[in-house]
Design brief:
By secondary structure, the protein is α/β, with parallel strands linked by helices. It contains 8 helices and 10 strands. The chain folds into 2 domains: 199 residues, Rossmann fold (3-Layer(aba) Sandwich); 47 residues, no CATH class. The strands form 2 sheets. An 8-stranded mixed beta sheet has the order 3-4-2-1-5-6-7-8, with helices on both faces. Helix 2 packs parallel to helix 3. The longest helix is centred in the middle third of the chain and has 19 residues.
């Protein structure tokens, strides 16, 4: 099968971040499928565009057995909310261009956020002599999550536009994959799609890669953890990540010196 993934945040080799589709693409390729990805050019850990992509609208490269089209994302991405909106628009245009160039797929998966990934996904699936099914994947509810974190204002023209894009994507897609059942419940409540249109493929973990080692090791000694039970969070420390829950848990566990919470954030450079 020829699988096309539209994912602005598909990781570059060695880049930290969410690797859901890097792992899926690798496994599908190992099973004999032809996998192509349309992705952005920003290094999202630093907010910068690697030199090799400067001045290029679409770059074609390989990530192992996976073919990747790296599409221009304006460098304004990390400057401000307005800059990020401009960067999303730039990716929409460059990714739609790539969608017209990729090998003809048998199925398309467009994963959100950003919600605008649905546009090049639809282009790749529909603007051809033989339209193919496409899956709208919801990794987070947009624009709802942007409203709850204060990034967007409810009722603003941009918010209404994004809600309209969400409704269109739900109607147009062949299937809607959600990462949590709560997303499906919310979308059904808003009458975006019938229950039969949803599927549920959650995140997972490679237990061979993340199997815990012995507690007596050099890193634990350096950090002074000893034999304590350590709860670790490694990821983004943004407004949408609800890290106050960890703080609240730490308050409740303040009389338990045998438990430690560790938060890890990737810093630029």
């Amino acid at each position: 099968m020829r699988i096309l993934i539209v994912h602005q945040y598909y990781l570059m080799p060695g880049q930290p971040g969410g690797s859901r589709f890097n792992e899926m693409a690798r496994l599908w390729a190992e099973q004999g499928h032809q996998v192509t990805v349309i992705a952005g050019t920003i290094d999202y850990a630093s907010g910068k565009v690697p030199q090799r992509y400067h001045g290029r609208w679409v770059s074609k490269e390989n990530d192992g057995a996976v073919l990747v089209y790296r599409c221009h994302v304006p460098a304004t991405y990390a400057t401000s909310y307005v800059g990020r909106m401009w960067a999303f628009l730039g990716f929409t245009l460059s990714a739609s261009t790539a969608a017209l160039r990729v090998p003809p797929p048998d199925i398309v998966i467009a994963t959100s956020p950003p919600l605008i990934a649905t546009i090049p996904g639809w282009v790749a699936a529909r603007v051809s002599r033989h339209p193919v099914p496409w899956i709208f994947e919801v990794r987070d509810l947009w624009p709802e999550s942007a409203i709850t974190t204060g990034v967007l204002t409810a009722g603003s023209p941009l918010t209404r536009l994004l809600y309209g894009l969400e409704r269109w994507a739900c109607r147009s897609a062949s299937k809607i994959n959600v990462l949590t059942p709560a997303f499906q419940a919310d979308m059904e409540k808003r009458a975006l799609a019938a229950s039969t249109k949803f599927c549920f493929v959650p995140n997972g973990a490679d237990v061979e890669s993340f199997w815990p080692g012995p507690r007596d090791n050099e890193m634990r000694r350096q950090l002074g953890w000893g034999d304590r039970f350590v709860v670790m969070y490694a990821g983004a420390h943004g407004r949408a990540n609800a890290l106050h829950q960890l703080v609240d848990a730490a308050v409740e566990l303040r009389d338990r010196p045998d438990i430690r919470a560790a938060l890890i954030q990737i810093q630029e450079g």
